[in-house]
Amino acid sequence: MDSALVAYTLLFFFGSTVGSFFNVLIWRIPREESIVLPSSYCPSCKTPIKPFYNIPLLGYLLTRGKCAHCKAPISLIYPGIELFTALCALLIGHHIFSTVKISSILTIAPVLVQFFWLLLMIPMSIIDIKHYIIPDQFTIPFILTGLALSFIPSDISPVNSLLGIAAGGGTLFLIGLLGSWILKKEAMGGGDVKLMAAFGALFGWQGALLSIMLAACLGSLSGIGMMFLKKTTIDQKIPFGPFLAGGIWISVLFGEQIITWYIRLLHV
Ligand SMILES: [Zn+2]
């Protein structure tokens, strides 16, 4: 069989398994439950789910969307997140592994962490939408890991990683200060600041600044759209995490094209 087809099939199954783990994170992190133990259980009757029915995507089909014990319906959101994560793993995996030069076994480490952290933007966004928080688990360990991994010779040097933390976290912190002063209320959560510091540590300062600009554009567009549809008012609390996630993904996937296009625009 074609080796590329095998690689993409493995990536899809890996993504759906990661998505299954994300379902656990989305449910348990805001409730401050352990993310490792106990194993998955039915939210209705608390019966542990048999490993066989826990297989991503397939488990939902085998149980026909019902708990095998109490027959309570299982939300389509669970297989939805598994499928979405699998598709994102294909898209991001294809991009990262086809553009990044992996020169030695050691340089695989930062690439794998970048890949996993980009996927983590899925549960981060859902938790921010539901609970208005970006838990530290998605940010602080990755600020430290990003900085540590930058000492492995690759595209991101330790200086770039440090500048990334300052540019990502610092810019959002200043925007937040300015926003609070204008709006007379907290405009930017600490979680947003730490999120962009983590992105800067892992991907460097250029991407961090581009992501923030893109997130601001996405946020303004949707804000205008929502006000136009009268779905929101200026006072309503809007989670910024999903817009940052959007900016982060666009800047990683299309950053080079955007910068080339922008430079050409300035020369004309
Ligand atoms: Zn049940």
Short description, anyone?
With 268 residues, the protein is mainly alpha-helical. It is built from nine helices and no strands.
Kindly describe this structure.
- By secondary structure, the chain is mostly helical.
- The chain folds into two domains: 1-99, no CATH class; 104-268, no CATH class.
- It has nine helices and no strands.
- The protein has helices at residues 3-28, 58-62, 77-99, 108-131, 140-149, 158-183, 190-203, 205-228, 241-267.
- Helix 5 runs parallel beside helix 7 (190-203).
- The model has no long low-confidence stretch (mean pLDDT 89).
- Residues 42, 44-45, 47, 67, 69-70, 72 line the site of zinc ion.
Helix-strand layout with pairing:
Elements: H1 3-28, H2 58-62, H3 77-99, H4 108-131, H5 140-149, H6 158-183, H7 190-203, H8 205-228, H9 241-267
The structure holds zinc ion.
Residues 42, 44-45, 47, 67, 69-70, 72 line the site of zinc ion.
Percent strand = under 5%
State the total count of DSSP E strands: 0
Mean pLDDT: 89
Largest sheet: none
Q: Judging from the principal axes of the Cα atoms, what is the shape?
A: globular
> From N to C, what is the helix and strand string?
HHHHHHHHH
Number of domains: 2
Q: Kindly state the percentage of residues in helix.
A: 55-70%
- Note poorly predicted spans: none
**Structural class by SSE content:** mainly alpha
Ligands: zinc ion
Please report the number of helical segments: 9
Oligomer: single chain
Distance between the termini: 49 Å
